């Protein structure tokens, strides 16, 4: 092999190495900084709903923390107060805002704090009924104004008409899923 041939082979190797390194760098850059994908309007609306839910939930969590209550526990108490009667645990689970796979444990914690009571249904002993206690009603009464104040602070700037419109749109969206 002549010096000239070795030089050409070396140049080809260098060029090939540069091409490979450039390709690798391009892949690494894309992995580090992926190209922005344009979301469709449905996905964009969905993500906006998730972000908004997260931010609004933080305000409620702050208020509920003062009474050592989780949003799910608060939801159960609200449902039982609103029902005005005892509810079967299955019906209670169906009415919850978010699904909790362990409703029994959730109710155990509330019962331990004397915020709810449970009993067996007279007609079907397999059915467990839950009702809110006076302690639960008292706790909700303490929380009513702070919760409403948090909601007013978070959403009051939208005005009644826009809030009604928003509620109608969200109800319509839920009706289709």
Describe the structure.
The chain is built from 7 helices and 3 strands. The chain has about 180 residues and is mainly α. It folds into 2 domains: about 1-30; about 55-175, Winged helix-like DNA-binding domain superfamily/Winged helix DNA-binding domain (Arc Repressor Mutant, subunit A, Orthogonal Bundle). Helix 2 (about 40-65) crosses helix 6.
Task: Give a concise summary.
The protein is mainly alpha-helical and 177 residues long. It folds into 2 domains: 1-31; 54-175, Winged helix-like DNA-binding domain superfamily/Winged helix DNA-binding domain (Arc Repressor Mutant, subunit A). It has helices at residues 3-32, 41-65, 71-83, 89-95, 103-112, 134-155, 160-175, and strands at residues 87-88, 116-120, 128-132.
Write the topology of this structure.
Blueprint: H1 3-32, H2 41-65, H3 71-83, E1 87-88, H4 89-95, H5 103-112, E2 116-120, E3 128-132, H6 134-155, H7 160-175
Antiparallel strand pairs: 1-3, 2-3
Helix pairs in contact: 2-6
Properties at a glance:
single chain; three-stranded antiparallel sheet; 2 domains; Arc Repressor Mutant, subunit A; 177 residues
């Amino acid at each position: 092999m002549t010096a000239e041939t070795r030089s050409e082979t070396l140049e080809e190797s260098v060029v090939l190495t540069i091409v490979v390194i450039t390709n690798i760098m391009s892949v690494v850059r894309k992995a580090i900084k992926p190209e922005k994908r344009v979301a469709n309007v449905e996905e964009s609306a969905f993500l906006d709903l998730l972000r908004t839910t997260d931010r609004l939930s933080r305000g409620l969590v702050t208020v509920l923390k003062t009474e050592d209550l989780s949003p799910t526990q608060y939801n159960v108490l609200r449902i039982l107060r609103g029902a005005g009667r005892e509810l079967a645990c299955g019906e209670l689970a169906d009415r919850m805002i978010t699904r909790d796979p362990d409703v029994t444990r959730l109710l155990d914690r509330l019962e331990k704090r004397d915020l709810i009571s449970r009993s067996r249904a007279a007609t079907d002993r397999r059915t467990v009924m839950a009702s809110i206690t006076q302690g639960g009603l008292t706790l909700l009464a303490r929380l009513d104004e702070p919760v409403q104040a948090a909601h007013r602070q978070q959403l009051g700037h939208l005005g009644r008409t826009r809030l009604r419109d928003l509620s109608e749109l969200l109800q319509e969206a839920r009706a289709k899923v």
